[in-house]
Amino acid sequence: MRTYDIQAAKTHLSRLVEQAAKGESFVITKGGKPMVKVVAIDAPAPRRTKRLGFLAGQFTVPADFDRMDEDEIAALFYGEE
Fold first, then answer.
1. Can you give the chain as a three-state secondary structure string?
2. Does residue 47 fall inside a structural domain?
3. Which of 63, 53, 5, 65 is nearest to 30 (CA)?
4. How does pLDDT run across 1-60, given as a tens digit for each residue?
C-alpha cells in the first residue's frame, strides 16, 4: 500500500481519490506517522422505499380490536372488581 505525505496528498488529491475509487487504497502520513487510510466505499445506491402501506394484505385486524381485553386492562388500571 502506498503512502503519501499530507502535502503531496493535497497537491494530488483528485488523482489519489480516483485511484482509491478504483480499489487502490493509500495512507496519508504527517511527519512520517500514518494518519488516515483512504479506501473506496462499496455502498449500494440508496433506494427509495414506500413506507405507508408496506404491510398491506399481510395481516388482518380483528373486528373487536378496540375492545379486546378491555376487562383485563380495566382490572390493571382500577384493580380487581
1. CEEEEHHHHHHCHHHHHHHHHCCCCEEEEECCEEEEEECCCCCCCCCCCCCCCCCCCCCCCCCCHHHCCHHHHHHHHHCCC
2. no
3. 5
4. 899 999 999 999 999 999 998 889 999 999 999 999 999 888 566 677 777 887 888 988
CATH code of residue 19: 3.40.1620.10
**Domain tally, the chain:** 1
Residue 16 located in a structural domain: yes
Query: Does residue 2 sit in helix, strand or coil?
Result: strand
Mean pLDDT of 60-77: 89
With 60 as the cut, is the pLDDT of residue 81 above it?
no
